[in-house]
# Entry
Amino acid sequence: MNDLTQPVAAWSLAQVEALFALPFNDLMFQAQSVHRQHFDANAVQLSTLLSIKTGGCSEDCGYCSQSARHDTGLEREKLLDVAEVVATAKAAKEAGATRFCMGAAWRGPKDKDLGAVVDMVKEVKALGLETCVTLGMLKPGQAEQLKEAGLDYYNHNLDTASEFYGQVITTHTHADRLDTLAQVRDAGIHVCCGGIVGLGESRRVRAGLVLELANLNPQPESVPINMLVKVPGTPMAAEEDLDPLEFVRTIAVARITLPASHVRLSAGRRELGEAVQALCFLAGANSIFYGDKLLTTGNPDVEADEALFAKLGLKGEGVQGRRCAGH
Ligand code: SAM
Ligand code: DTB
Ligand code: SF4
# Structure
């Protein structure tokens, strides 16, 4: 099995903290320079999300609307039919998405459920979309079944630095996350692994999260950075807002330390507004979730994103058919 904790570039916490502490303009300049060495500076990859199994999750993640342990008023649903998933994926493709991400509120998939997900992956892939799933922790053999179905990416976030993990989630451990990531990597599936900020963590914890992501070996192909969406009824609903400029810094430090990864501006985009999103793109974010909904919470609608892309001269990456505006 891969040892995912062996560093590639071997960043140290002191180095990552030093990046966070740079004057803002210096940090932006460094992030933008790194970005331009690896990517088209004006291209943004577009992923669309669908919750294929909503609510009733056994886990206690303090930020999550879908935990059965929090009273968020969310209605629990069964696993969607394959046909419904395929119809939504078709619409996402038409709107310009290149990757379709299917999320399930599970601790991990039961073998009988995995069969249905395998069918979804096959059919979505057949539409010519990249496929991604996020199903929680995997048992041995499950990653291989997903790979055989044609799965391109598995999303499994470290979420927060190991030292803070137990203050956010108690029903599984940071080490459990690394174990699933190793299984995904060993099966030959691309890794989508990021985190969430705004949980009341310190800058040191944010630096620790980025450090742990950067020192995964190999580095994740895709790195979603989520800003907490405060869901009423969750333990984190009353958390203080993270300064948006600190969020931009987190994106920039991720860009510098994960130079070849797609850094995705993920949950919380609607709350950030246009100007902060523009700073995030300047800081090296080059992927977004695209479509009116995330899993259970809102996202900017497609028209708003088209307008923003047009204003910033950004183009959706690898898009066929209807394109995101701006080109
Ligand atoms: N159950 C699976 C798991 O935990 O890996 C997959 C779904 S889970 C909703 C995927 C990710 O969404 C989490 O790891 C977290 O980073 C992010 N997330 C969940 N709720 C959020 C919220 N309220 N605000 C921001 N990000 C959130
Ligand atoms: C990720 O890092 N963010 C996405 C995706 N991976 C699955 C999920 C965001 C969820 C935001 C809260 C919600 O809509 O329930
Ligand atoms: Fe369940 Fe994932 Fe939400 Fe945690 S983040 S409660 S594992 S759906």
Notes: The mean pLDDT is 94. Residues 57, 59, 61, 64, 66-67, 105, 136 surround iron/sulfur cluster (ligand 3) (CB under 6 Å). Residues 125 and 131 are 6 Å apart (CA to CA). The longest helix spans residues 111-126.
